[in-house]
Write a structure and sequence with these properties.
This protein is of the alpha+beta class. 69% of the residues lie in helices and 8% in strands. It is built from 4 helices and 4 strands, in the order αββββααα. It has a 4-stranded antiparallel β-sheet with strand order 2-1-3-4. The longest helix has 50 residues.
Length: 222
């Protein structure tokens, strides 16, 4: 019985094999197109290749010999414009993918507004600590200047009569005061930058939270 089943299947298999051979022979008779596209991929087809319309394509016969070289379908100027357009499209796709990646990272980092508010507060808190230390230093310089003024009373407030060591002390105190004030201004600007960044992030996050399934407000807004 198994032998009989094999005999029945054999003609069908031979028919399929013959049909495949006929189709392949037909394609080979017409020729096979081959080229390397702008991404370095070698492509083979039984008809002109769309991905290689801007470059030469080889048409090979059944023996593999090149029977014809199909020239590009575009002029040099057209190819340059096409390539420029492709670069723009690729850059745009890359920007979209990068924006999606950043959005995913932002959602992972800030699953709700409570987390975002806390990180803002921590960032501002670090700046406030620095400002506090600078203020203490500034107070110390003010106290030092008072001591210097007491010493200057001996010279009737005339710095030209003061000894060099006292003059250097006055100059150093004044320079330190300028440095501290400039540093305080920089810290105030840094707080503005931090708040601006978190405000921009929060506006984006509210859109992402809404898209992800409703606004997530784990804590009250700032």
């Amino acid at each position: 019985m198994p032998h009989l089943h094999f005999q029945l299947l054999l003609p069908a298999k031979l028919t399929l094999l013959a049909l495949s051979t006929t189709l392949w022979s037909g394609a080979q008779a017409q020729g096979v197109y081959t080229c390397v596209d702008n991404k370095g991929r070698r492509i083979t087809s039984d008809r002109p290749i769309v991905e290689c319309l801007d470059r030469e394509q080889e048409k090979r016969g059944s023996t593999g010999i090149v029977r014809q070289v199909v020239p590009p379908s575009y002029t040099a100027d057209e190819r340059a414009k096409l390539e420029a357009q492709r670069r723009v499209e690729e850059e745009q796709r890359a920007r979209v993918q990068e924006e999606k990646r950043r959005d995913r990272a932002l959602l992972i980092r800030y699953p709700n507004q409570g987390v975002h508010d806390k990180e803002r507060a921590d960032a501002l808190g670090q700046i406030d600590e620095v400002i506090g230390a600078v203020n203490k230093r500034e107070q110390a310089l003010v106290a030092q200047r008072k001591e210097i003024d007491v010493e200057m009373e001996f010279y009737q407030g005339d710095a030209s009569k003061a000894p060099n060591w006292l003059k250097r002390k006055i100059e150093d105190n004044e320079k330190q005061m300028v440095v501290q004030k400039r540093f305080l201004d920089e810290q105030a600007q840094e707080k503005q930058r931090i708040n601006a960044r978190f405000d921009e992030e929060l506006a984006k996050l509210r859109q992402l939270w809404a898209t992800a399934g409703g606004t997530r407000t784990g804590a009250a807004s700032r």
